[in-house]
Specification:
Length: 168
């Protein structure tokens, strides 16, 4: 009876690995979350300032509205839209999952790069969306041979890391 139970558990483990592509139970190192920040309010605040300034300069409500709207939309597109779009892609399940050992790991105080399952990743410390913390600043990617499971989305020709799990 004991052998049947062990064989059944091994079968279930093999089946779950085949179905889900990995064995669950690793340590979560990073997951993308949507955080409200001042950066999201910046386009609105600067749009209002541009509206007031244009209205004072041109003495016309329409000119102020047009200038304010252009500033608001331009800043929103360059500051908020990428963060919202990446989170939307990730939370709706439009990501790619990969597992494997880290290879070709290179790091400095400013940027980091590595390959995982043949896919190349690189990021600058603290910039952009998704995971972007280099090892010297407390990053979770420690070096070659670290076995990790990762999810990433592709946005504007970049691979944005949204989830990292240590598999050991």
């Amino acid at each position: 009876m004991k052998k049947i139970l062990i064989l059944t558990l091994l079968f279930c483990l093999c089946l779950s690995t085949a179905v889900f592509g990995r064995v669950y139970g690793g340590t979560l190192l990073y997951e993308l979350t949507f955080k409200f920040s001042f950066k999201l309010l910046l386009p609105v605040i600067l749009g209002i300032i541009a509206f007031i300034a244009a209205r004072l300069i041109f003495k016309d409500y329409i000119s102020g509205a047009v200038v304010g709207a252009v500033v608001l939309l331009g800043l929103f597109f360059f500051t908020c839209f990428p963060q919202i779009k990446v989170y939307s892609l990730y939370s709706s399940g439009n990501y790619t999952e990969i597992t494997g050992p880290v290879k070709d790991f290179q790091t400095s105080d400013e940027e980091e790069s590595f390959t995982l399952s043949g896919v190349e990743f690189s990021y600058k410390n603290g910039s952009g969306n998704g995971y972007n913390i280099v090892q010297s600043q407390g990053g979770v990617i420690k070096g070659d041979s670290q076995l990790i499971y990762m999810r990433y989305v592709e946005f504007m020709d970049k691979k944005i890391i949204c989830y990292i799990e240590n598999m050991l």
